[in-house]
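DOMAIN: structural biology
WANTED: fold as tokens
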Amino acid sequence: MADGMSPSQRALLRLGRSLGDSTVRTDPSSCETFARDESETEPVTPAGVVHASTAEHVRQTLAVCHDEGVCVVPRGGATGRTGGATVIRPDTVVLDTTPLAAVKHLDRANQTVVVEPGVRTASLHALAESEGLFFPPDPLSAEWSCLGGNVAENAGGPRAFKYGVTREYTRVIEAALMGGETVRAGHRTSKGVAGYDVASLLVGSEGTLAVFTELTLRLVALPPEVRTLVAGFADARDAGRAVASLVARGLTPRCVELVDEVCCDVMRAHDATVLPAGARAVLVIECDGHHPAAVDAELDRVADVCDAVGARHLERARTRDEREALWRVRRVMSRSLRATAAHKLSEDVVVPRSEVPALLDAVRVIAARESIVMPTYGHAGDGNLHVNVLWNTPDERPRVDRAIEALFRATLDLGGTLSGEHGIGVLKAPYLPWEQSPALLDLQQRIKAAFDPRGLLNPGKVFTPGGAPSHRGC
């Protein structure tokens, strides 16, 4: 460079002058914090970090970096499991949106809330419930995840079986494009079909199309009655059969969570009282509604189905504290599994609900063949299982890779999909062509190019580098 500075150095210098040194950080200790997320992606330290506390900070960052040809990685709570918030090249700027954390307006009459992307998911849950309202999407990382990331990944969670995922609760998205232009997509009304549904396109786009600056989300009436049942089984396959039977009978609890043998042991290590002692695998099933008798009756029908399939133990949470204790332990499951091995990958594959037993069979066969530990838990009610792979030493990695590939092939053979809520990110990008046709991949790459012609925004995510637009800038 004529001035001896790299494009990222020039961009960060310009941003520091306009936004202030407290907003723009380039010291290695600060930047290193932003080198990784919750995935096993190889950490790369960015050239600098912009802590955006206003929408104008976001717009200026995208304008300056576009002008200088510098890649930008938007980042919220960094709870992702596929590397969606990670840097792939060191000459990159991370755009941290967690300081954008205001709740701007809660409209009780129309059951909507306007928030900035850095609001923590659990904070919105608490606020909505204090007003007698309910935001159903509940990723198990809710204490740490941000709503911008939830929308970017189309997050779900245990309650998705009954209530659906984040896309169904996203009304309006205000976002900045690479270059700084602002767009508003969607509608505040419950219905609206004017133009293309760009808001739905942005949901689940993994930060590759735009950076969110404001979100209008739909709320629903809070169901005051909640009942929780723990059903213990001889093994995970019997639990999977119970799930298939529940679905076949048309029952729709708000949560149907499966916990296999390895995960049960981990949960008991945290709290020996939360699960039945004689059960090797369990289902945690929750029903809710507005009338106590109706909720009790639904839970009775659920218990009858589990009993007919061969449940060894059925126990209802008797108090709110018991229910909260159960979910508290369940929410730390992933982090607890990580503590049992040096390395952990979590693959959130999805199959048709009726195929849950077949997928569990496939996992057991793969784990035995490769001599790999593959604990499984997750949202069995909608067929979304988190199949984990644990290992300790580098020489195990070939077996890990074979196990993951076999899992993906089994999932697709059963009519499933590679990701239900964690996205494609970096780690699953090489496998996306297994599920989608060349024509469909090409169409999506052209959409990406329309939003981000130079390929500067969150590069390397969703599509493998060789599949990205040929004129991308990074």
